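[Solved] Which block belongs to which protein?

Original post:
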Amino acid sequence: MGLTSWFWERRQFTMHQCFSLPFAFWVFFLAKRGCLSLTYRYLFVSVGGCVLAVVTMGIYSSLLFTSTLVFILLVCSVDPSCVHIWVFGIQMLWQTFWHLLIQYREYYLHEPVSIRLFLAVSCLMLLTQRITSVSMDLQEKRVHLTFSSSAKRKACVTLLPLLSYLLSFTTLLGGPLCSYSRFVSSMAGLGLNPPPNPLGAVFFKLMQVLLLELVRYRLVHFLSTYDPSNSIPLYGILWVLGLALSLRIQYYSHWRISECLNNAAGFGFWAHAPGASPDWSGLSDGDFWAIEASSRMSEFSRRWNATTASWLRRLVYRRCKRFPLFMTFGFSLWWHGCHFGHFVGFLTWAATVKADYHIHRYLHPQPSSVWRKIYTCLSWINTQMTVACIVTAVEFRDMSGLRLLSLTYIGLFPLFNIILLFMLLKLNSKVSV
């Protein structure tokens, strides 16, 4: 997929989420004034999600509705200790089918794929997070859902919060991922103990989005005036760094808009001591300055898309007894769609994170403050170069991103990290012998 097409695809999410902001404010203020009971709040949020899905995805919204229906049937019929295996297997097979269908149409038939289908599959990936999060809660007995055939009214009351969690218009097109129990408590808190007015926090974050988009626009305009293949290697490396930054800014903007939408509905508020300033950062996928200041690949990986990283740790990393790091990145590759660029990008990401652990162990800064500053600076540069390669390979998805990396020599940085990893592993094996 070209850079222009990718930007347009991401703008679809931002545009539709901005249109949803007034409805989120409406839910908050009606609930705060006591005009919406808890049941009607759940209905408003879930119906709003269904309407948003149909408007944005058209016929492809059936992908989400089918997943939700199958999940509800599994929850009602399968024992909680076994439900996660069934849910995980069926949901990932359903999602993989649509990923492969997109690849078949793109690479084999060479047909343009509807933007609505891209939106639906992206939202299906987010729905997979919420569905598996609930199934793990049921398996670990953090959540108890009881259904009785003789008490249909009670069963409907139990299902309504679950449907609202899965199809909420505040998280349908973007994260951040929150737990089911936290969602239920937040919905109940809107009427019992509502948070302060979120208007100021939402306005401040919208200004951040506007600033990020302005920086991205100027950066893309600057990059369009240069050809990285017809310049000296340093210019080519700087060009790819700028391209990767512009791609990451798209994510930062999308995450901020998602935060705004959740904050506008009253979610994400952290209560502090009386008199302290309101903190609306309880639901966040990452902060621009914190992520970009990461001086190590392992730090960047934990901070990038934070709620998804936590979900992957819970779903894969903590459950794998052998090679948990590579299994986690391997599953992330599967979840993202298994394009060729994804293979290269995610496997490189896993290898460089593994290399970071070993390199840091051998080259940990000494007590000297000068050496510590030099080490941190060099480590930050290495992280930026490596992340630029990974982002370029993953976002272009096909061979075009890899050709760009080979032309500009920036691909040597992650290659150097991987070679250094094998050298350190070999050295470590000789020392142990």
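(Second protein starts here: sequence line, then its structure tokens.)
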Amino acid sequence: MKNDPCFFLHSNTCPRIMTSSNGLILGRSTKCNSEIELFISNPATKSWLPIPTLNCLKENPDFDINIAFECNQDSELGFMLCLFEVPDEWSSSCYGLKFYSQKEGIWKRFEKSFFIGDRPMRFDMHVFYNKAFHFISNCFPFLSKKSLYFRPYIMSYNIEDGGSRMIRLPKEARRGSHDSSCEMGIYKWGKARNSDESICLVRLRKCVFSVWILIDYEASKWRKVLKIRVKAILGMKEEEPIIVRGFIVMNGDYLVFATKKKVYSYGLGYENYMKLQEICDHKFDDDADKVCFTSYSDTLRLCGNGATTLPLMQQAY
């Protein structure tokens, strides 16, 4: 363990990896005084950058943190870190935004708020595309059919002009979305800087995967690339009943999913289309509800100005 570059993440008090982007990890930990601390780390270079704790997190350390993190592809130092603040009024659909200024080392406020509509957003996943952060709503059936927000949808926030915009899901994805077995997620599609880069939508309902790619951003037009029952993917590899406990799209064209015991990848791109690979046993408890994935790739990308060696590294080595 002590030779593990992630030793700090294991050793720190209540560490938690929130998300990652292009080789950098965004994490949170709890100090001895119960104060929340955010940090950006690159385990490959054993470096980290602590982020100043916001007052709202000092006052309410148990609150969920609605945060988006994106490492800039075009800069060795650049990353975007945005916090979406829960409205003071429970009925409000407008979230205030703060972003972390690397140059000044402080949090600053965006002028325009993020309008999310009448459904809660899945802030635990996001896609940065077309200079905007995108989030998908939940599927829970609690709105009137007359509501514009009756079915799930995607909302985006443009970081340049502060505009909020709805992107409609495919009709087929919206149908049956209120079923208790329905779960949806959005992920990056395609390789960085390629012309096919876009947003991928995955729906799992009644043990059937359906996958769409956004092909016309302005018109909210999608192309379906896959619809298949999980049993047909796995064949005789697992006994009935087959239960999917988590999924994600990684590397722009691989559907990675976990069953009760194992993790698999299933190709969605041209070269690997419908090719199944068993990755590993995940070792999670049989009674656990979910298996969560965080994609990560080793790079030498810097954490930013002011970054230092990971705490406890001297003791670890």
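Accepted answer:
You had them paired correctly. Confirming on the second one: The longest helix spans residues 7-11.
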